[in-house]
Amino acid sequence: MSSAFTQHVRRQYGPWAVVTGASDGIGRAFAIELARHGLNLVLVARREPQLVALAGELQRTHGIRARVLAFDLAQPDSAVRLDAACDDIDVGLLVAAAGFGTSGPLLSSALAEERSMLSVNCDAVLAQCWWFGQRLRRRGRGGVVLMSSLLAFQGTPRAAHYAATKAYIQSLAEGLRIEWAPHGVDVIACAPGPIASGFAQRANMVMNGADRPATVAQATLRALGRRGTVRPGLLSKLLGWSLATLPRWVQVRVIGQVMGGMTAHQQDSSTRAVGGPPAGA
């Protein structure tokens, strides 16, 4: 990363960034990348030991300040608590990387789990955008990164509800990008494909060609303020290009075949977590 880019990140999105889902995967990669550019961090997830270890590592390596907030974003008051915990600092960037999903037939899943996913992936993100959007509008500059998905652009058999939550995030990001531009606030939807972050093991899925979380974080940060959607990773780009000109019903069938291959070893009577533990842990 160039010195000029680092200065831009600090000026536009510093001095503090909030990263949810920071204990693992893409959230952790964003935290590391932002620390490299000198931003102080509020690290949010359920697993406190992992957050404390990451905070200590980033403080030693990059000389930043880090604040650990360990709570469950599935709770209805989580966004209010998060906002209150940041009252004494100047937050310029929100990276809403926490989330989880399910794979397999919807009728084989537990309704409570599906509703919890809806709360974390959609309701919690909406509340975070509202609370931190107020802050960013007042300060006249900043940024928001929302985690969409390769699956957000069409219905996806065997991940129907997970894909629907990501479609919500994609649409929300596209709309907020235009709404908040006059306030100096950049919004981007990050829509990666498979990521090598323990995803396959936790999801009980077979995935080939997975990208590194660092690739996602770096590409997204580079695109923030320049594009509305970024598709990090070869598979996400390839499928995006190849499906774009097809009728939507064909897109659904093609992506269903892709998901079917990833979950072919599962029994139809079971579901598996996609994207990590609930609330992004």
From TrEMBL:
Main subcellular localisation: endoplasmic reticulum
InterPro entries: NAD(P)-bd_dom_sf (IPR036291), Sc_DH/Rdtase_CS (IPR020904), SDR_fam (IPR002347), VLCFA-Steroid_DH (IPR051019)
The keyword Oxidoreductase appears for this protein: yes
The keyword Oxidoreductase appears for this protein: yes
Subcellular location: Endoplasmic reticulum
Classification via Gene3D superfamilies: NAD(P)-binding Rossmann-like Domain (3.40.50.720)
Keywords tagged on the record: Oxidoreductase
Domain of life, per lineage: Bacteria
Pfam families, alphabetized: adh_short
The EC number(s) this enzyme carries: 1.-.-.-
Listed GO MF terms: oxidoreductase activity
Family the entry assigns: Belongs to the short-chain dehydrogenases/reductases (SDR) family.
PANTHER family: RH59310P
Name of the featured protein: SDR family NAD(P)-dependent oxidoreductase
Organism of provenance: Piscinibacterium candidicorallinum
